Amino acid sequence: MTETSPGSVQCATARPHVAEAGLAIWVLTSVGFVVAVINLLIYRARWDFIAAHPVYSAGQPPTISRALSDPAIGEPFAFWMLLAAPLLVLGLCAILALVEMDLRRFGAGQVNLARVRALFVLIVLLQTVAAVGIVMLSHYRMPEATPRHMTGSYLFFIAQTGTVLAGGIVSGWLRALPEGPGRLTLARMHEFRRRMAAVPLLLAALYLVLFVAKHFTFPVGNEAVYLAYVSTEPVVITAMLLYLALFAVDTGVIVLRYFRA
Q1: Can you give the pLDDT of all 261 residues of the chain as single tens digits?
Q2: Does residue 4 sit within a domain?
Q3: Which of 150, 166, 198, 224 is surrounded by the fewest CB atoms within 10 Å?
Q4: Does the residue 241 lie in any domain?
């Protein structure tokens, strides 16, 4: 066996264990499925609503929440969210299990293990809250259940933002782990995820600013602000999900190493 230089994409020549390869395949399939389904549905919901309600949409571009108020759009959306939300939590748990294996092999003396594991627990809790939020906002829809729908929306956006923030912090810590036989996650990808966490976080901050700004009246009118707000909403969700999808690189390498060995 040979060790690679720190940060190399090929972590090691050691063949992963069956359980490690199985976890990697689960991450690829579960997280990949969720990212694809949610991204497809959030954009399609708006497109379908605009096509079905052109007069309303011409006067006020629909948010995702408004699009879901149409039962023909909201009910299928709710079904797929009920399936996708727990899969995302389970996929994230599998990611953390792979990272935990790296911690056990290479973390001693390199990082504060108790601090990292405490953040793991927080990440799982935040992702679980976000999953509950997305199920709530999809099953409780406007106008009949607006308060519960909005509660679900707030839970999802706040908790998912917290998940990305905590994940970026963890990636910053884990990039310091040494390379060697048995290393599962990639140092370069941890560094890349640490940097890329800023994208969904900045978009979430912009979305919050636009959410507040749309309630004010501007001399030039509010149309541009509202359009920016509506357009930013799905982009924020996409950025958050794609951040988690970056683990496809690490897990893809694990699977390739397993089958090529």
Answers
A1: 334 444 444 444 578 899 999 999 999 999 999 999 999 999 999 999 999 999 999 888 999 999 999 999 999 999 999 999 999 999 999 999 999 998 988 877 778 888 999 999 999 999 999 999 999 999 999 888 999 999 999 999 999 999 999 999 999 988 888 877 788 999 899 999 999 999 999 999 999 999 999 888 877 778 888 999 999 999 999 999 999 999 999 999 999 999 987
A2: no
A3: 224
A4: yes
Long-range contacts formed by 106-111: CB under 8 A, 24+ apart: 106/177, 106/178, 106/180, 106/183, 107/177, 110/176, 110/177, 110/178, 111/173, 111/174, 111/176, 111/177
Residue 3 three-state SS: strand
Prior bond to 200 cis, omega within 30? no
Residues of the domain holding 115: 18-260
Say how far apart CA 156 and CA 159 lie, in whole Å: 5
Specify whether the CB–CB gap between 189 and 166 falls below 8 A. no
Residue 241 C-alpha from the chain's centroid: 3
Sign of CA pseudo-dihedral 155, 161, 163, 165: negative
Report the C-alpha gap between 78 and 131 in whole angstroms.
12
| CB distance 226 to 214 below 8 Å | yes
Q: Does residue 1 belong to any structural domain of this protein?
A: no
Number of domains the chain contains: 1
Q: Taking every pair of C-alpha atoms in the chain, what is the biggest distance, in angstroms?
A: 69
Question: Would residue 13 count as lying in a domain?
Answer: no
Give the SS3 label for residue 12: strand
What are the tokens at 84? 């996708």
Provide CB contacts within 8 A for 16, sequence distance 6+: 24, 184, 254, 257, 258
